Amino acid sequence: MSALFVFTFIISAILSAVLTFFVRRGALALGAFDVPNSDRKIHAKPTPLLGGWAIFLSMAIVVSILRFNSDLFQTIPDKYLIGIFFAGLIIMMGGTLDDKWNLPAKWQWLFPFFAGLIIVASGIGIDFITNPLGGVIRLDQWELSVFQTGNIAYQVTVWADLFTVLWLLGMAYTTKFLDGLDGLVSGIGVVASFIIFGISLLPEVSQPHTALFALILSGACLGFLFWNWNPAKIFLGEGGSLFIGFTLGILSIISGGKIATALLVMGIPILDVLWVIGRRLLVERKSAFQADRKHLHFRLLDAGLSMRQAVSLFLGFSAVFGSLAIILRGKDKIVLLVGVVAAMIVLAAWTVRRYSRQRVL
């Protein structure tokens, strides 16, 4: 089994790196560029988009190969794999339209939303949330019958399905808003999916098939990171930045509903997104989707860190908190979540102080 894990990771990384070369050429031919025409865009010259297609396609190819050649991977229901594929395809197609024609924000959310509905329809969902203090919170108590054909009935589990869609949207938009520095989101994808790999192999979870799926995402992100590390030769684009977070959200569900683990791995990015959205809506009275340079990763650059230093700092925090999430249990995870919040506050305070000193100098 260990050999299969290593082989899958390496093949996913190599395939993604090779596909990125061709996707980059395709983006150049289509004229899908990110032009540095605002203060928020810190790259020096027009850079090709659509890089997320390399990650999506490499995952689809490796999953297809394993589905027909690995007994381990065949334990994942076909309806899950079909749902994940078509959900990802919708996100990537919507992202491509946005990269090419810069769709209004009021239309952009529809693609990940419908992708979330596909995931729910495929049977992937969150039926309960484990209470770290003991017991569980059930989300599957309210069911509505939608239609029935013969002996087949389809029901909507209202709270479970709603929570699942909102969770996937939240994860997708976390990585979308985070996508401001070279290698940041693709690097987070490598780290977070590798943590889910470790979680899936724990004795109480024991899901080697989910671990294998997580390694496919991790390897695909790593292969793309080769091209995306500063100075980036290609960007993820709208579809890629959404797809990584969306897929991490799915993996956190099928690996035993490890929502708390995903919150720990993505803790600082999630808190940053919540802070920025809250400030935009409540203080600045503007759209939550209006981009600016007030995210923490931009603040770190303003405070004097290089792009590589800022990205490495984010990846380091994700790796540390994610590793601790594998070790800790129950109430200890609450303490760790408090630690994530404290780390965010300290990091923000340090950034503000250093930025103030930079301005004085």
What's the gist of this structure?
This protein has 361 residues and is mostly helical. The protein contains 14 helices and six strands.
Describe the protein:
The protein has one domain. With 361 residues, it is mainly α. The protein is built from 14 helices and 6 strands. A two-stranded antiparallel sheet has the order 1-2. Strands 3-4 form a two-stranded antiparallel ribbon. A two-stranded antiparallel ribbon has the order 5-6. The longest helix has 30 residues, at 331-360. The mean pLDDT is 84.
**What are the low-pLDDT stretches, counting only 5+ consecutive residues below 50?**
none
Tell me the total number of β-strands: 6
Biggest sheet: strands, sense, closure? 2 strands, antiparallel
Which class best fits the helix and strand makeup? mainly alpha
Number of helices: 14
List keywords for this structure.
mainly alpha; single chain; 361 residues; 14 helices; globular
Give the SSE layout.
Blueprint: H1 2-30, E1 33-34, E2 47-48, H2 52-69, H3 78-101, H4 105-108, H5 110-121, E3 128-130, E4 136-138, E5 143-149, E6 152-157, H6 158-178, H7 184-200, H8 208-228, H9 237-254, H10 259-265, H11 267-283, H12 296-302, H13 307-327, H14 331-360
Helix pairs in contact: 1-2, 1-8, 2-3, 2-8, 2-9, 3-5, 3-9, 5-6, 6-9, 7-8, 7-9, 7-13, 8-9, 10-13, 10-14, 11-14, 12-14
